TrEMBL record:
Name of the protein this chain belongs to: Glycosyl transferase, group 2 family protein
Chain ranges of the Glycosyltransferase 2-like domain: 4-168
Keywords on record: Glycosyltransferase, Transferase
Family of the protein in this entry: Belongs to the glycosyltransferase 2 family.
Keyword Glycosyltransferase: yes
InterPro entries from the UniProt entry: Glyco_trans_2-like (IPR001173), Glycosyltransf_2 (IPR050834), Nucleotide-diphossugar_trans (IPR029044)
């Protein structure tokens, strides 16, 4: 078996048939579709059972309510494919998705995970923030861009990825706990040197409903993301600098930034200075105006500014000053 598509589902009676049909109608045929019903209480199970008679590539498994990470790990355990593709019950895979992603992994043998561009299917006015996020991830395509942007936000739509099965055995599968299981996996595998990229084509329609798990579950709260990224940031800095860690400067100030920086302090990292756009009467020089930045090479900047316009201005300014992303600074929000 070339590909195993793993689709966990909980109470998705209104969308599950569409999601399954989008996989069964793929132009690439050498796959199995493993649906893991995570304790649904609506008509989801009956719908999937009915569809199993249509195509013997569709397999249904049942779990008591355990959560998406455990359902995913179970689905991977039950699978047999060389490649594992993710799919969600809310979404729709375009007909050439599996074909293009398989061809990419077959051709790029040094790449461990491949994603794609995604089309946002939701209310772009009421859900402007999410729509903007989708626009952003569609600009992060190459392996280098994914490496550098990994700490800003999760660079992938989870149901858009396909990865090599052996990575699960080598570096572990989804971590079960109070955390965003997909983002933690990307950061862990990237830490271990797994190259990731995207097919530069729209292969998934990402449907955004008010009841979508990533909108409502506490595991996907902003602070959970910052806790996870702080842990892997510390590992990243150790990889880059060893024991000779340069002074860490944080670009940003205020209550929100302080709340997010506290995770770094809890991990034993020391912040030397804060960079701000405001002129401050700070005799201890704890805060420094951005126009007083020294030349790159003797410090490392962590930018926690979350305003998208502000982030773009900071990226441009640091580039003009000779700072290189991933070498001299990282965007953390």
């Amino acid at each position: 078996m070339k590909v195993s598509v793993v689709l966990p589902v909980f109470n998705a009676e209104s969308t599950i048939e569409r999601a399954i049909r989008s996989i069964l109608q793929q132009t690439f045929a050498d796959f199995e579709l493993i649906v893991v019903d995570d304790g649904s209480t609506d008509n989801t199970t009956r719908t999937v059972q009915r569809m199993t008679s249509m195509d013997d590539r569709l397999r249904l498994f049942h779990l008591s309510r355990s959560g998406i990470a455990r359902a995913l790990n179970f689905g991977i355990k039950m699978s047999s494919g060389k490649y594992i593709a993710r799919m969600d019950a809310d979404d729709f895979s375009l007909s050439t998705r599996l074909k293009q992603q398989v061809e990419y992994l077959d051709t790029h043998t040094d790449t461990g995970l491949v994603s794609s561009l995604v089309r946002y299917k939701g209310d772009t006015v009421a859900r402007e923030g999410y729509a903007t996020y989708v626009n952003w991830i569609n600009t992060i395509i190459t392996s280098g861009e994914i490496q550098h942007k990994r700490f800003a936000e999760s660079p992938f739509s989870h149901p858009s990825v396909m990865f090599r099965r052996h990575l699960v055995h080598r570096f572990g599968g989804y971590q079960e706990g109070k955390l965003p299981e997909d983002y933690e996996l990307w950061l862990r595998w990237l830490h271990h040197g797994v190259a990731m990229a995207k097919v530069n084509d729209y292969l998934l329609e990402w449907h955004d409903y008010p009841e979508r798990l990533s909108r409502n579950h506490s595991h996907y709260a902003y602070e959970r993301f910052f806790l996870v990224k702080s842990r892997y940031l510390k590992l990243y800095l150790k990889q880059q600098f060893g024991k000779l860690l340069p002074p860490l400067w944080v670009w940003g100030a205020g209550r929100v930034v302080n709340n997010r920086v506290r995770y770094l302090k809890q991990l034993g990292l020391t912040i030397d200075k804060f960079i701000d756009v405001k002129l401050r009467n700070d005799k201890g020089e704890r805060f420094i105006h951005y126009t007083r930045l020294p030349a790159p090479g003797n410090l490392f900047i962590l930018c926690y500014v979350s305003d998208r316009r502000g982030k773009a201005d900071i990226l441009q300014y640091l580039g003009q000053k000779g700072y290189n992303e991933g070498v001299d600074f990282l965007m953390m929000a």
